[in-house]
Amino acid sequence: PGLANYLNNECELKDVIKDTKNENLKAICFGVIPPNPSELLASEAMMEMVSVLEKEYDYIIFDTPPIGVVIDCLPIVKSVDGVVVVVRNEMTTYPEMEKTIEALKRAKAKILGVIVNRVRPTGLGKYGGRYGQYNKYEGYY
């Protein structure tokens, strides 16, 4: 069972909170995708769940689909303290990013920052290339 099951009153919250390899990190998967994901995420049950989780956990992080692809994540913006936009280097276009930022602004989201992933460290730069030793990232690009 996952979040959708809980929001549809098919199970208890304790049934969807799963342990991870990190002892201080829990996860809730979405479960079976219902025909109305946006409605579920905007529901009173979702707001109540967030209120319950806030009492138990220090941080709650929602990993959502890209806003440009679907708008399902926009209702969550109403119940979060901030949003971090993740873009992929050399894949996400400026127009896509602008569209995402505008959608978040319309939803009154507090944008905390942007993460650019899949960036390969290159060149020596003005600091002498200290990061060139981190070859453990090789193959992630």
* Rg (C-alpha, Å): 18 Å
H/E topology pattern: HHEEHHEHE
Q: Alpha-carbon distance between the termini?
A: 33 Å
Average residue-wise pLDDT: 84
Number of helices: 5
Major sheet: 2 strands, antiparallel
Q: Count the strands?
A: 4
* Percent of residues in helices: 25-40%
Please state roughly what percent of the residues sit in beta strands, choosing from under 5%, 5-15%, 15-25%, 25-35%, 35-45% or over 45%.
Answer: 5-15%
The chain-level structural class is alpha+beta
Spatial shape:
globular
Q: Can you list the strand order of the major beta sheet?
A: 1-2
Structure described in brief:
The chain is an alpha+beta fold and 141 residues long. The protein is built from five helices and four strands; from the N terminus they run H-H-E-E-H-H-E-H-E.
Task: Describe the fold and architecture.
There is one protein chain. The protein has 5 helices and 4 strands. The chain has about 140 residues and is of the alpha+beta class. The strands form 2 sheets. The protein has a two-stranded antiparallel sheet. The protein has a two-stranded parallel ribbon with strand order 3-4. The longest helix is centred in the middle third of the chain and has 13 residues, at about 45-55. It is globular and about 50 Å long. The relative contact order is 0.10.
